[in-house]
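Follow-up to my earlier ticket, as requested here are the two runs.
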Amino acid sequence: MPAKNSQKDYLENGYYHLYNRGVEKRKIFQDEQDYSVFLSYLKEYLTPKDTEKLNFQLENPSLSSREKDKILRLLKMNNFYNEIDLLCYCLMPNHFHFELHQHSLDSIDNFMNSLGTRYTLYFNKKYKRVGSLYQGVYKAVLVKSENQLLHLSRYIHQQSLISKPASKGEALRSWKQKQPSSLPEYLGLRNTSWIKTNEILKYLDKIKANSLLSYDAFVKGNDDFEAIKEIIIEN
């Protein structure tokens, strides 16, 4: 029997909670470089590719063969700008969460397969390993309402604030470690063009009873489990 949420209900213009973790629950992010590389791939996939500029650079006769190869790789690289809108994310040591919007039926599948393959190649080369990095196919569940969309963002961002030991032998002082997430974008502390905050923040503005309620206060509140129980993907 297929694992729960491994069979996807894809819709055009659908919103989804996506999740995957390391095989045997192993760490897929072992240091700051790993987080940085993964995020750099997201940025490259979700920002527009300036093919005209790249082709112009390619015509420069003074280019070295190394520089030329780099430009050719960039031209061939997959790009999902206007296909995928990433609303929020959280990267944990052995798994990650995305909340995103796809524009066509196959956008998510193409995006996740490309991202997963590319990061696995990087990880295996760096750590001198072979084989699958992830525990099976990524999980995806359809978000069915604006209310779920909002409360899912809180659930995902709260994961980045959970204090956990990175390993059993580490001292207590190192347990309180915040994980990389899109929460700073929602708090106005960072501006990242490829994180789309408007939809969720506009819905929060529309429903909040107290005009002083901020996203910060919303995240610090208790989860509405009934609102999101259908779209939580088990670890």
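Run two:
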Amino acid sequence: MKNSVLAGQEKKRIIAEIEGVVKNYDESAKIENIRKYSTAANEAVRRCLYLYLGKLYRENPDLREKILKLIKKLLWDDSEHVRGTAVYALGEIELTETELTYELYETALNDKYQAVKDAIIEVLQKKVEKDPVSTLQFARRFLYHSNPRIRRGIIHGIEPRGRTHPEDILPFLEEFQDDPDKKLRGTILYVLGEISYKKGCLEKVAAALKRWTNRELVFKALKEILEVHKRYEKFSAKSFKETKEYLEKEFGKI
């Protein structure tokens, strides 16, 4: 039942109910139908909900504010399953620079349930691959957020762009090199390792690290990069031996 496909008539009925809730939505509106679909055991029902909310958002500018407010209400729901579905709905809409959109991402990144936080990171990772320019611009707004969990979530969210275009995210990482949060610095090391072993990436990472002033973190990053090349040697552009020789030529003995 989990992955069953919706029958045509059932899908039409669900879509009609979703559209009715959205068009008549206000702050006091009852949204039990939306909640019901958010927690459905059938994954196809949940998918229908968030995909159709995204479709309504894209095709009906006059409904966008209502949809954002509805998602906001879902993100404050007591059920983590409802909040998780709301995250995927958020992933289907455009990234905009409105304060409400910023607030929605902030709420999701700060969720107490790891599954909800993982969902918003997954959403950001998909967005940064499809639309890197606007996603990175949007992510920059969170760079100095007071909550380190949110800062860590943003770094994880933009990581996939670094695997193909490390030069796009290395400036973000550099700004965090002296961050007081130990876990965040650990996240930086993880990301540097993950973006270093693809073809043409090691050289860009090394060039960036030469400019960093936190030499202790740079040394740890070099150790992490070597460890990743050892672990992923079959998939790396350079062998572990080649990587070690290159890094020691550039930075000295590691």
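The only thing I checked on run two: The mean pLDDT is 92. Let me know what else you need.
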